[in-house]
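Students often ask why we bother encoding 3D structure as a string. The short answer is that it lets us treat folding as translation between two languages. Here is a chain of 385 residues written in the first language.
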Amino acid sequence: MSKPLNIGMIGYGFMGRAHSNAYRQVSQFFRREYRPVLKACCARKEDQIKAFAENWGYESYETDWRKLIERKDIDVIDVGSPNNTHKEIVLAAAKAGKMIVCEKPLAMNIAEAEEMCEAVEKAGVANMVWFNYRRVPAISLAKQVVDEGRIGRPFHYRATYLQDWTIATDVPQGGAGLWRLDASVAGSGVTGDLLAHSIDTAEWLNGPIARVSAATETFVKERVHAETGKKQPVGIDDACMFLAVFKNGSMGTFESTRYARGRKNYNTFELNGEAGSVFFDLEDPQYLQYFKYSDPETGKKIESHLTGWQKIHVTNPEHPYMKHWWVPGCTIGYEHTFTNALADFLESLETKRPVQPDFRSGLRTQKVCDAVLDSAKSGRWVEIS
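And here it is in the second language, the structure alphabet:
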């Protein structure tokens, strides 16, 4: 008999829908001790949150997140609201003893992230950051390949995260739909929104980044604010590129922009090592490309006439997460990554082993993001503690 786990969802936008879908799906595909219950959702606009609650099947709704946290029938607070709200909500939820799952980036800056980490650790509450791309089966398989020693000594890591949705100069900033373009709400542009994913994946696969050298650009300097109707300076980074040196001695390049015409969510990485390489493209997510140069067990070089990139269709039951989904050859999509992440969170409640990435991991990513932005301002290499 499963135990109910009552969810309090804050936010009804893109992430609110993605998370709610995961709560509804997870118990149908993963056998876990706990079963999420859509107990309540919360947002300021009553008409919007009421419609959201009815559509997704939440039992109730609130228009004040403080009231949601105070409720005795809520076990988990899910923070799916804009970045500038994360810290206050997390601190209150931790003080109330609630489990917390939070969207990325964890905070607006390192200071906020450190305070949030200290709060959840002092309260001893379960916590997770929704870096959902770790749960793409192909990316999880890449992690397995690396951990099995099939890449060998790493030399290079390169990542891109490209989109094109803000190129037009008449796109406003701010408001419910475009808060990611408002620095006072988002904290940063592509660095915190897109490269945070790339950084989390890179450090998960290749270990910590030791230092960075970065450059950023804001192509459209002024935009109309959606709420005031007035033109004001744009404070976010539209594009960012940085060089990285990893603690293991390998070198990295990272690039992100929202001005890459034709790229919708082009998130790629490639890791090159002495014994092999892996490559992944989120726009073709069911495949992991793997190049095998030598056998990790014997160290013997593969015969040259048999070498070449192998395109692995990651849908077999032995691949990460796939035994919970469909038969081989049937792919899963973006929304399933949240379900996989949630399943791991629920499993951590059973095993009492903290799930990853937790808030401490989110703080680590925040440190790299802040170092990137600091380097872009100073023009110098920045060390990461």
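Translate back mentally: The domain at 3-132 is CATH 3.40.50.720 (Rossmann fold). Keep this in mind for the problem set.
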